[in-house]
Design brief:
The protein is α/β, with parallel strands linked by helices. It folds into 2 domains: 3-330, ABC transporter type 1, transmembrane domain (ABC transporter transmembrane region fold, Up-down Bundle); 351-587, 3-Layer(aba) Sandwich (Rossmann fold), CATH 3.40.50. Helices cover 64% and strands 10% of the residues. The strands form 3 sheets. Strands 6-9-10-3-11-12 form a 6-stranded mixed sheet, sandwiched between helices. Strands 2-1-4-5 form a 4-stranded antiparallel sheet, covered by helices on one side. A two-stranded antiparallel sheet has the order 7-8. Helix 8 runs antiparallel to helix 11 (289-330) and helix 10 (229-282) packs antiparallel against helix 11. The longest helix has 54 residues, at 229-282. Bound molecules: adenosine-5'-triphosphate and magnesium ion (MG). Magnesium ion (MG) binds at residues 391-392, 433, 513.
């Protein structure tokens, strides 16, 4: 089991603390060492009251004590302060190793899950909110870790030392200490829920805002072209306003948390000072001046420790919220799981559609209805029909991006649902309505995932896709960088790159969605002849508006509202005088 799979299996956002432990399962050594050095580094905190009490007792009762004793106490104090340099350094080193490797493992697990999630997940979650999870939430875990694994143990240590020393010197005073615990517990109880809710609200608003900002940037050409900058800005402004309000609500509860815990415990600490001082003053209970200093010193550090625990509640809240947020990815059930499914080494390319129905989630009508068809290996099926007829939906069912809500699709006699999609997709090539190119050279964009392919085959694919001419005219030919920071390509040029990308994979099944739509007539006819050659050896599904594209198809399926309205070859459909003939006339 890989580390990412392990995290997917063990992640439980409703048990954040346990999840945190799972996140660090491989790094307990470093965390432990980090925690140890943190306690050492903080030793002056709990040593100081003891030494100060000693010194005061020495100077208030000089008889029976020597100057040497005084110096010794001073030396111990100095040593405990000086050790801070190496211990602090070591503490940060170990923590950093643990935290940084947790961060990269977590981001790796998130990315790997994102690679497996079904496309419907991406219809619901915007890029912006996912980005916020990958960046902001992982960072929040880092802060949470620092709080829990260094702060908490050292605070507990401070409390422990205070209790032990007090028990040895003035045992009955422990009652005071004990009283602080319920006070702190009540405070935590009261404040926890509102903190949790407000953290959740802010996180949601941040995600929405992040999504909005990314959308705004993407829309800039459209916005400018239509002169609607002010409308766009007011949309952004309202998201920013929501974040502002949620953040202020969170800040105010944080402020209340901090102030109320500080005041309560400080008051208590003052009571302790006055009580112990008056006991020393009246000479009861055998309390020395040094004891008063020691008790108030420890009581101070005890209450400060509790105050700090209360103060980190807001950050704990934020961290736990982040664990929940990432759970939305890691615990998603929309995983396209290929485990235990049949892997394919070769396919013939025979398709059988058995009463396939498909309804998009949250919609009522069937986008594909009772679709039954047998497709022989090597056959070319053209899908025509009005916009919204269901052509792209059917192609997505064939690719396996969508699963039939009823009925089955059989590939070579095997239900597509029982096949490991990753192995199946090795044999298909898709050219979709929107050409996706990434930032890189033309060569990288064509080869994508097939880097081992020979130069000859690459050249052949480029020629077949009729892309040779424009590529050779680019400043650095195949090595020209395209995309955001490089040369921009026209729609037709992008499409030809996508075709070359599809051809280089030498697929058994070719899926073309309006693949020649944005080409001029000359390039279209050039590609057309290339495509016709290619379609001969492979099963091809081609969705097209342009009729020139489908003249050569073995069969044409006319879709209307997801149903097969007509089926046949070009001539017979024209002769039929049905929908196809109508569409044909319109196009002429
Ligand atoms: N993600 C989606 N969620 C909900 N409904 C959808 C989704 N995608 C498409 N549809 C609906 O399904 C129907 C078929 O859409 P599809 O994209 O398959 O049409 P098409 O034939 O490819 O159209 P075009 O020729 O314009 O590309 C349409 O009514 C559309 O509104
Ligand atoms: Mg479409």
């Amino acid at each position: 089991m890989s580390s990412s799979q392990f995290l997917q299996a063990k992640y439980q956002s409703n048990r954040p603390f346990r999840t945190l432990i799972v996140l660090y399962r491989q790094d307990w050594g470093n965390i432990g060492r980090g925690m140890g050095f943190y306690c050492l580094k903080h030793s002056p905190e709990w040593l100081r009251p003891l030494i100060v009490a000693n010194i005061i007792d020495i100077i208030s009762q000089p008889e029976g004590h020597t100057l040497r004793e005084l110096c010794l106490n001073g030396a111990v104090l100095a040593a405990s302060i000086l050790q801070n340099i190496p211990t602090h350094y070591l503490h940060r080193q170990y923590m950093s190793q643990a935290i940084r490797s947790m961060e990269s493992q977590l981001r790796m697990a998130l990315s790997s899950t994102l690679q497996q999630l079904s496309l419907s997940f991406y219809h619901r979650n915007s890029t912006g909110s996912l980005q916020s999870k990958l960046l902001r939430d992982v960072e929040a875990i880092q802060v949470l870790t620092n709080q829990i694994f260094q702060f908490l143990p050292s605070t507990l240590m401070t409390i422990g030392v205070a209790v032990v020393v007090t028990a040895m010197r003035v045992p009955w005073f422990l009652l005071f200490f004990a009283a602080t615990v319920p006070i702190a517990a009540v405070l935590i109880r009261i404040l926890r829920q509102p903190l949790k809710e407000r953290n959740h609200a802010l996180r949601r608003q941040m995600e929405t805002m992040s999504a909005r900002l990314i959308e705004m940037i993407k829309l800039i050409p459209l916005t400018r072209a239509h002169g609607v900058e002010t409308t766009e800005m007011s949309k952004t402004e309202s998201r920013l306003e929501n974040v502002r309000q949620a953040a202020i609500r969170l800040d105010s509860i944080n402020a209340i948390t901090n102030a109320s815990s500080w005041v309560t415990l400080r008051l208590f600490s003052s009571i302790c000072l006055v009580t112990s001082a008056s006991l020393a003053f009246t000479g009861r209970m055998n309390v020395s001046i040094g004891d008063v200093v020691l008790l108030t010193g420890y009581f101070d550090s005890l209450t400060m420790a509790l105050v700090q625990i209360l103060n980190i509640l807001p950050q704990l809240g934020k961290g736990f919220e982040a664990i929940g947020s990432m759970g939305e990815i890691l615990e998603s059930t929309e995983i396209e799981s290929n485990q235990g499914l049949v892997t394919l080494n070769r396919i013939r390319g025979e398709f059988l559609f058995e009463k396939v129905n498909f309804v998009y989630p949250h919609t009522e009508t069937n986008s594909i209805a009772d679709f039954s068809l047998k497709v022989e290996p090597g056959e070319t099926i053209a899908l025509v029909g009005q916009s919204g007829a269901g052509k792209s939906t059917l192609l997505n069912l064939i690719i396996g991006f969508l699963q039939p809500t009823q009925g089955r699709i059989l590939l070579d006699g095997r239900d597509l649902n029982t096949i490991d999609k990753r192995t199946y997709r090795r044999f298909i090539s898709v050219v979709s309505q929107e050409t996706i190119l990434f930032e890189g050279t033309v060569r990288e964009n064509i080869l994508y995932g097939r880097e081992q392919i020979s130069e000859d085959k690459l050249q052949q694919a480029i020629t077949d896709a009729n892309a040779l001419e424009f590529i050779s005219e680019l400043p650095q030919g195949l090595e020209t960088t395209i995309g955001e920071n490089g040369v921009k390509l026209s729609g037709g040029q992008r499409q030809r790159l996508a075709l070359a990308r599809a051809l280089i994979r030498d697929p058994r099944v070719l899926i073309l969605d309006e693949a020649t739509a944005s080409l001029d007539t000359t390039s279209e006819s050039l590609i057309q002849s290339a495509l016709e050659r290619l379609m001969q050896q492979r099963t091809t599904f081609v969705a097209a508006h342009r009729f020139s594209t489908i003249r050569q198809a073995d069969r044409i399926v006319v879709l209307s509202k997801g149903k097969i309205a007509e089926i046949g070859d070009y001539r017979s459909l024209l002769a039929n005088e049905g929908i196809f003939a109508q569409l044909h006339r319109l196009q002429l």
